Known about the structure:
Layout: H1 6-26, H2 54-68, H3 81-100, H4 119-140, H5 148-161, H6 166-181, H7 192-207, H8 212-236, H9 240-246, H10 251-258, H11 262-286, H12 308-348, E1 374-377, E2 380-383
Antiparallel strand pairs: 1-2
Amino acid sequence: MKRISFGQLCPRWGCAGLIALAVAGCQPEKPEPWETFADLNQAPYKPQAGSSNAWDQYFLAANLAEKAVEKFKDQADLRGNQQTEYLSQIDTALSIAIRAGGMNCTPQFVAQDPFLPRRSHSGLSAIGRGLELKIQKLDEEGAADGSAQYILAAHRMANHLSGGDAQDALLGYWIASEARRSSVTLIQRMSAGALTNLGNSILASLDKAPPLSATLDNELKSMLAGVQFISDVHQKKEYGLLETALYKQADPAIDFLKKLKEKDRVEYFRGFAQEAKDRIEHARQTADIPVIERKLFQIDQGADRPWKRFATHLFTPLDTFLIERDLHIARSRLFALTCLALAGGKAQGSAPLAFKNLPANADTDPYSGKPFPYRVANREFRIYSVGIDGRDDGGDSNSENREPDLLLEPARK
Length: 413
């Protein structure tokens, strides 16, 4: 048999290697790995029994409240015996929430599926409703001073919940607003001592509220959880989940996603996530300056934003939060200062000409950055915010007391 020399084999191997390389070069490129924007598999937050953290206590109370008053969850109005039964059933949860208001609060926020309802919010809303009913009952019984603890509890709860994300904060602001609405006429019947304590305590609670940065950090987590959810839907081709969650509102965005080419996927989701980050960064830079000096977040109208309908759903809570935060700060301050002015009129026969020994910025209107307009004539006084237009219209306002000037919520009818 003829021996094949090494020299004869080498050229063959060289050709085979070139052919292998050529074939490899013709193979399609490996797809870019899927980026992770948020971990949607985190264990949900579970409040710890026996904790001295107000956050835990609020959510333990919410779990109790949801079960206690489940039969009333679809009833918009409660009358007579229904109110009594509601308060009886929710009493334990209310007591826990009120005690929590006096504790330090370290929010324990975990982002979750943006399209699922937050079960805890049902219980927290029930507690807010219970506080409101307590205030009304005590007013009817002629025990105006006794309602102070419930008014204060609502404000403390609101400020503590603002340490979550935008939806947590918005729920808290609603709880405080409903308490004020039930108290607008009631505070006229409070004693000077109760008014002084209530006014100072509300201002102290607002002053100790979690920093805006904490809320924005958590809201970014929620926004990116939304981006992650849509990325997961696209990866698994489960577009029906979006069609169910968003109905017809996002059909163009869903159709675009279905046709999205693999080579464009990375850029699409990076752009989507970057918009969330840009919105949050803009809020960080502007939310604490007076409203009249702020610039709105600008989107390049010529830019290609195929995710914009998803963004409308997922990023809108941030815009709503910023509007309601201004409102909460303004009306909490106005309510507290009204209490202090009323107290002065009852104790000294005249409302104070100026407010003293207040926390920093306690009499500052967040819309103008200047002190609230405040006019005094003996026991009579008027205090208000210039509102979103930044112009002083002498306290003139509409039926909701929101514009042109901003006043306290109108009393509940």
